[in-house]
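Worked Example 4.2. Consider the chain below.
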Amino acid sequence: MRRFDYHRAADVDAAVLLLADRPGAKLLAGGTNLTDLMKLGVEQPDALIDVSRLGLDEISELPDGGLRIGAGVRNSDLAAHPAVRRGYPVLSRALLSGASGQLRNLATTAGNLLQRTRCRYFQDVSKPCNKRRPGSGCPAIEGDHHNLAILGASEHCVATHPSDLAVALVALDAELTVRGGDAERTLPLTGFYLPPDDRPDREYGLGHAEVITAVTVPALSFGAVSGYRKARERASYAFAIGSVAAALDVTDGVVADVRIALGAVAHKPWRASIAERALVGEPAVVESYERAIDAELAAARPLRDNGYKVGLIRRLVVATLAELAGDPELRS
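Applying the procedure from the previous section yields the following structure tokens:
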């Protein structure tokens, strides 16, 4: 077993200072992903900084109708919160589809967003992996890639991001509040995940000595008309092979506004901006949904064994939007 130090941060500033002093340190909150990766030898921190007791566990309703979610809010608490269930059911549904009850009781909001890929080559230290060891290669491209990326990938990495919650938050234009040194900054979640390019090991727009303190969900007038749909390889707890988070505003049979994000198709939760633009002003009917998602998926570049995801995502999006629009024939 590799030795590591353990520190319990007294507050956020203390956590930032500890990170700054220890380049090899990692933050520990719920630990549901980090400890697994440590057991596999993928993560090898020389210190763990416990941030689970910093008081970042509150959910606040903002005056304009938005939400501020503390970075340390447990997934179970977020999924069950009345304001979330009432105004943003897409968040509850994403969380409840994302893990077992035991894991939701431990996992935190920020930790969920910072999950690392479940690509088998990344998790197997005996195999090359550009995300784990830059320049070593990406065997997934010719190997087992049936559940890897069809959008936004590169010749260096075709891994997918595993979070369900992140997909819902991207659809809702969520923003992160980040503390580092004496400064605090805000950045959109849509721009938080970095493209795989030639350094896929660089995954987030977050400095080493920075700590996520909160996630803000802006007010959305039609947030209550939202949902999350997930396909997986078994009925019990499993990571997605495709998912969609959506919110829909239909007025007089026409799409007035829409938000769509896709999961398990790229290195990040994929905001379907092309599909959104194609839908606004169109009749809220299945043909409109199909044309819109086809326009989005025109950029897909499936590999040998994951082309099925194109059709899968198409069906998930159409079914989700039809359900939100109240179409009784297309809810299944």
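The first strand starts at residue 5 and ends at 8. Residues 308-325 form the longest helix (18 residues). Compare this with Example 4.1 before moving on.
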